[in-house]
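ok so I'm stuck.
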Amino acid sequence: MVVCGDDGLAHRLAAELRGVYREQVTLVVPPSGRRVRQPVVGRARAASAALRDMVNAAVNRTGNSDATGGTGGTGGTGGAGRELEASEPTEDVLADAGVERATALALVYDDDETNIRAALTARRLNPRLQLVLRLYNRRLGQHIEELLDQSAALASGGGPGSGSGSTTVLSDADTAAPALAATALVGTSKVVETDGLLLRAVERNPPRPGEVADPGLCTLALLSATSNDPAGADGSEDSGENGPQLLPDAAAVEAATGRGTVALEQVSYSGPPLPAGRAGVPAFGELFSRRLRWSLAGLAACVVALAVALMVVTGDHPLHATYVTLLDLFSINEPAHNADIGRQILQLLSGFVGLLLLPVLLAAVLEALGTFRSASTLRKPPRGLGGHVVLLGLGKIGTRVLTRLREMDIPVVCVEADPEARGMATARRLRVPVVLGDVTQEGVLEAAKIHRAHSLLALTSVDTTNLEAVLYARSVRSRLRVVLRLYDDDFATAVYRTLRAAHPRALTRSRSVTHLAAPSFAGAMMGRQILGAIPVERRVLLFAAVEVAGHPQLEGKTVGEAFRAGAWRVLALEVSDGERAAGADSPSEGARESRLVWELPDTYVLRGSDRVVLAATRRGLAELLGRRARRGVDV
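replied:
not stuck anymore, here's the structure
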């Protein structure tokens, strides 16, 4: 596999492919003078992967190895991988990197134009190449994806689906947004997004005697009895008896005592929502103020009372009495000179109410105009707001996170210093409250109601600004949940350890966008069926969407029979609109509410036309997809 990039995402992606998926990687980066310093985690994993590959290369030289060898290919000398230096991914550079013989190519430069130009060149060199592009522009990405797939199909002599290479366009902002949103809500970035649902792997402590543990959607793993590093997933496998047990069956879960579990559950928000308003005509409650609504209601009551009184005094029909009252109200009726005293008094009262109605109608018109004018302006945080998320920064990352939070109906208050920032239009469209000001200035976070907030997301592009905002927020509310976006990994590690030591009872998370985005890019390079990966101690669980047809381990078998403990497990079934899975208990489990049917009955028989979402180990997925593991490598 070939990875081309000019920032930390390229190093992260290469480390992910080597450490998690055990792939041979050629990394193309700018010359040393223009290169971004490799993340410390990437350096450590790259060194570990290189050492492991050197051992594997020694085994491969004894023969019977199916790994790609030779110099100048994707594996480099001895299969240890290579690193090339090039200012731009030109045709000569791509050819030297072995794109013509590569399985997949990732173009993760920060410039969209550079990625598109290199993708067009790579597709011409190798029509069967799996392409993964990093583009921020979604609409342009869709067009480029269709164009490259079409050109690959024509170059391979067939139509779409004829075995030609596929193209996947991703954005680091889009791929990191679900993890950042989940971290702000539930304190973990171990999430997988599928069919619009955000799923997380949550670690549960061993149940007490007589207590029944909540399995969530399913139990993914049994933790080690002596696990001291639940978050460390460096890609190595611990096959000892005391290691984690992935995808256990029901008997193993019941027999396990004193061991925690990892359960899969949906991330959702159950607190009070913040009204987001509507993009079109405002609601009546937003159109007029409360005082004006009471004034209009009082005048309407007076008109009804006058109409009833006139009907009683004159004996007129109710409709005629109402008509005459309105004429008197607007002073367009003849004076009641010859009428009785009761009729004259009612006419005077109607004229007086009409005088009161004029300023109220004028105020209503002015307020309505003001409401429509302010519909495109920024909202202010409402009084009494609490339990919300304070989002700092509406740049590329902040905009995507804001959209994701609002899709889950989570109340958000944004803070942005630049009135022309990228996400200001999105905030106006979603009717999200925004505080304009420098977050480092006194009073800005207070205006965002930080003292009553649920969590703080510091996502500006300046590390020191994020750190200063978090430290100040912690001084206001010591147990506030905070999530920082920090580019430098060494700095992020130092900040995380210091904040955790200073506030041991509060949740602190420091996240790098490249760290969060790399698994999604790596999964796309492995094939479109990979949805994501979740680390479980020092092992990894993969989530994939698989067509049942062509897999004898699944086709024609029930869900219970298809489950193989320690290898793979069917989690959900994708159905068409209006279709319902056979054996489902109720229609609500079908596609009328979701395209995925969760909690499938064990008696459901998988058909060749079905498409399922499953969790699998690396070895299990390799066996299921027909991939052969490299000798000497524990996949």
